[in-house]
Amino acid sequence: MTPQPAETQVVVIGAGQAGLSVAYHLQRLGLRMGEDAVVLDRGPGTGGAWQHRWAALRLGSAHRVADLPGMSELGISFATADRRLPARDVVRDHYARYEQHFDLLVARPVEVRAVLDAEAPPAVASRRRAAH
């Protein structure tokens, strides 16, 4: 588990395709992940919502997945992924390599319960979930 700072400038909620893309661009802008910005994800592991897809679903059969920004640096692409493997496994593995390569420090499992803005800087209320 990645420790969460008491205060941070940016909170990204979710480590799916959009959240990982945002985290990548925040780093490019000079924010330090885990300090200036944090990514919180409620899932127990990588893959976003793809973790919960059917094992029979393959990439290209029902859904295309766009590559994340910077993914070409890793030499991987969803366009060239093995179509025989379950999509959820391919997405999980690609996202895990991406998170590690760019040191995105995703905190999980963390369930965001509320985002508050009461005449003060926004605050996020969250709690760690027990890993399954």
Automatic annotation (TrEMBL):
Region forming the signal peptide: none
Entries under Pfam families matching the protein: DAO
Cross-referenced Gene3D superfamilies: FAD/NAD(P)-binding domain
Annotated FAD dependent oxidoreductase domain residues: 10-108
Keyword Ion transport tagged: no
Source organism superkingdom: Bacteria
Keyword annotations of the record: Oxidoreductase
A molecular function (GO) term: flavin adenine dinucleotide binding
Keyword Oxidoreductase: yes
SUPFAM superfamilies reported for this sequence: FAD/NAD(P)-binding domain
InterPro entries for the chain: Auxin_biosynth/cation_transpt (IPR050982), FAD-dep_OxRdtase (IPR006076), FAD/NAD-bd_sf (IPR036188)
UniProt-recorded name of the protein: FAD-dependent oxidoreductase
